[in-house]
Design brief:
Elements: H1 3-12, H2 27-38, E1 49-53, H3 57-65, H4 72-75, E2 78-85, H5 90-104, H6 108-119, H7 130-151, E3 155-159, H8 164-171, E4 178-187, H9 205-208
Antiparallel strand pairs: 1-2, 2-4, 3-4
Helix pairs in contact: 2-7, 5-6
Length: 212
Amino acid sequence: MNIQEYIGALQWRYACKKFDPNFRLDEECWAALKRSLQLAPSSLGLEPWHFIVAESPEIRERLMEASYGQAQVRDASKYVILCGLRSIEEADLLAHVRRTREVRGTTPEQEAASLEKYRGYSAFWENGRADAYIESQVHLAAGFAAGGAAFLGVDTCIIGGLDPVRYDDILGLNGTRYRTVLGMAFGRRSADDEYAAARKVRFEAGNLFSQK
């Protein structure tokens, strides 16, 4: 992909309001989209999230009701619920350190140093700041996946307008370490989605960037 194609994919992307309910993503493309969620960046690499793919039509209908009737939840080829940890615990830091050892072969001394470093960042998720910290990471994953989908020609809609309490109940998350943060629909825009032809509204670059 050259630079023009890259910008073109980002320009083509929009928050799809109406999906083609008959379209189905092929398995290879869906595997790549899941991989984009797996490869999403997170603060300290902690990955404080879990992704639930809602396949059941019955669950999709209930989730649509809990999303204030947004039909994208029901009609998209795939609908993913992006969940975040309820808190960052010592066990989460240990899990990351151990996974790093599996992948990179780190030494016990390196592990100890990493663990101490991560503990030093605890101010980010203590004193009532955990929710905001974790939700920001989940939003990073959603944005990363939306960009990846655009490069593959797949439409998306990030669903923030939902009732997380009802979602947690429907998905059986009560009593678990995870809670609902966002939903994300993947598929193909309907031919009669009027928003697809709307010009993209963004502030001019001069309003957004400055130099010091």
